[in-house]
Amino acid sequence: MESLWNDKEAFACGSDLLAQRVYTSRLLGQNPSLVLHGGGNTSVKITEKDFFGDEVALCYVKGSGWDLATIEKPGFAPVRMNALMKMAELDEMYDSDMVVQLRAAMTDPGAPTASIEAILHAALPFTFVDHSHADAIAALTCNADGEARVKEVFGSRVLIVPYVMPGFILAKTIYDLIKGRDLRAEGVEGMVLLKHGLFTFADDARTSYERHIEMVTMAEDFLAARSAGGAPASSGAGILPAEHLLGLAKLRQAVSKVRGYPQIARLNASAEAVGYASLPGVADFGTRGPLTPDHSIRTKRAPAIIGDDIAAGVDAFAADYKAYFDRNSSGHTMLDAAPRFALWAGKGIVSFGDTVKDANIVADISEHTAATVQLGEAVGGWEPLPESDIFDIEYWELEQAKLRKGPGRKVHQGKVALVTGCAAGIGFAIAESLAEQGAQVVGLDIDKEIPDIMKRIGGIGIVVNLTEDQPVQDAIDFTVREFGGIDIVVSNAGIFPKNDHLDAMAQGDWDRTIMINLTSHQKLMNKVIPYVKQGIDASIIFVGSRNFKAPGPGASAYSCSKAALTQLCRVAALELAPHKVRVNIVHPDAVFDTKLWTPEALEKSATRYGMTVEEYKTKNLMKVEIKSKDIGNMVAAMASPLFAKVTGAQIPVDGGNDRVI
Ligand code: ZN
């Protein structure tokens, strides 16, 4: 492992110790083999003047909720050293009391809550303290011989600390271990916490950081020599074949059912992931436990093992989880029994989360877990913490509080929505409303700008001509491969041809209208329904038109296409009801905030009716203007649990029309 220290960047910090602390914390955070997503913590001790001009000794400790990779000065909590040392001298302290006292001892009440390791950081008599959960330290110490190996690799340069639960007990253990000793005279430069991680310390930022890198490198070299250069398992190409996509959707559906709400599923089909998931024996060593206890908060203790019978694999995980809970619980309330990641033999590693971001975090942890567990198993047997220790962390009040902090669930969180014709107007408004309510949107449109347009709402845009078969199939397959399934389909794409009466209409105009406004929808249904049947609270919504019930002269192609689309919706509702998939249609009218309507066109139409533009825009029974966003919000509502028991319905959004009512 290379040191990322850069003299020029470090020089920019000057003599500002907190700036130096930010700099080397970020160096640690940049390496995912050291810390992942909020793991690890760092500190610096600084004596400074408080508001009243009195000198105060502080320990700036990483605040919870901050990530070392991106931390800034406000991410460190300034805690008074004298309070921290008083806490270290207590014989006992509840962790919940510790959190209160840590906050009370901060000189800035607006700072984030200090890491639960704050007392431990304070107790170490060095200016800089760096702590990581390095993969190599896990592979080295998650073994029956862990302690002997640490002695062999590091000699007396490190203190060896058997596993105890993080928080007050760990701080107290270390405080007692070093009390009255002169660590500098003893040449102690760090501590290895068996089956947990590594601490290094020094009085300057560079030495503390570079000791960390050096020690992790020593562990890596030891492991490489012991494993005789054996490469991790690897097999298959990096893409899931199309015939297994339905299996992926079934896996996501089964996991979401156990979880109680929809989950995004991210498949890692890299050669390494497929190789690991397919290893004989992975059901044994792959489920013994995580690399470091705090991973279990994100991943649970072990992954699900998925074979040919996908649902059975998820059920077996849930049953095992319940048994684990029963073995270890003393009056706790059981959390959900859904896996956070699954090893799918022959296909790869699937990670789950409420959002793509959450699932990606699990994916990163599972990738490091796969490589490290294999290495650990190869160099003498993978033996992580026993399940009782993991249970203590998983059901630890402080960790549960971290998880609860997030904002409340959005209506469509975890759902995947496919929307067609969404580069502008009603289609865009629908995609936007679904995204605002938490759905991961994939938008299909013939407009070349669609990738950028969808990016604006956090979605993915794919340029597709919806009348062509293979590109549509590819877009659907892409969606399932990326996110695990499809729950919401909004079939919106359409055109409004020019107003010719039947005796003057070009055959091509008729054919093109029917192809885009009707046949492309039928083609989409043909390809997407197999996946929607595996969706969560699945729903298909067509965008029709008031024109179907109240046609006008010159609109034969448009009116007929929308009438037939309505009939298509009704048949789909009949066919899909047994699969609990609802199919409804919305009939908008007089939506003028779209590309089609320029101010000139509006003026022209209003004049034709002998109205002002304002009158023309609100020519409905309620005298209200209908906007694209009204349709977007209605469609998002129709896809929500509000409409859970509604199928085959036609909902007009038109302000009331006497020809329709
Ligand atoms: Zn730790």
Low-confidence blocks of residues: none
Instruction: Tell me the span between the first and last alpha carbons.
Output: 73 Å
Helical content band:
40-55%
**CATH hierarchy class name of the largest domain:** Alpha Beta
Bound molecules: zinc ion
Largest sheet: 7 strands, mixed
What portion of the residues fall into strands of 2 or more residues?
5-15%
How does CATH name the architecture of the largest domain? 3-Layer(aba) Sandwich
Q: Indicate the radius of gyration in whole angstroms.
A: 30 Å
- Total of domains: 4
* CATH topology (level 3) name of the largest domain: L-fuculose-1-phosphate Aldolase
Query: Could you tell me the number of beta strands?
Result: 18
> What is the name of the CATH superfamily of the largest domain?
Class II aldolase/adducin N-terminal domain
- Distinct helical segment count: 26
What is the gist of this entry?
The protein has about 650 residues and is of the alpha/beta class. The chain is built from 26 helices and 18 strands.
Task: Explain what this protein looks like in three dimensions.
With 661 residues, the protein is an alpha/beta fold. It folds into 4 domains: 7-226, L-fuculose-1-phosphate Aldolase (3-Layer(aba) Sandwich); 242-400, 3-Layer(aba) Sandwich (L-fuculose-1-phosphate Aldolase), CATH 3.40.225.10; 416-591 and 626-652, Rossmann fold (3-Layer(aba) Sandwich), CATH 3.40.50; 596-623. The chain is 44% helix and 14% strand. It is built from 26 helices and 18 strands. It has a 7-stranded mixed beta sheet with strand order 3-2-1-4-7-6-5. A 7-stranded parallel beta sheet has the order 14-13-12-15-16-17-18, with helices on both faces. A 4-stranded mixed beta sheet has the order 8-11-10-9. A hairpin with a 3-residue loop joins strand 6 and strand 7. The longest helix has 26 residues, at 507-532. It is elongated. The model has no long low-confidence stretch (mean pLDDT 93). Bound molecules: zinc ion.
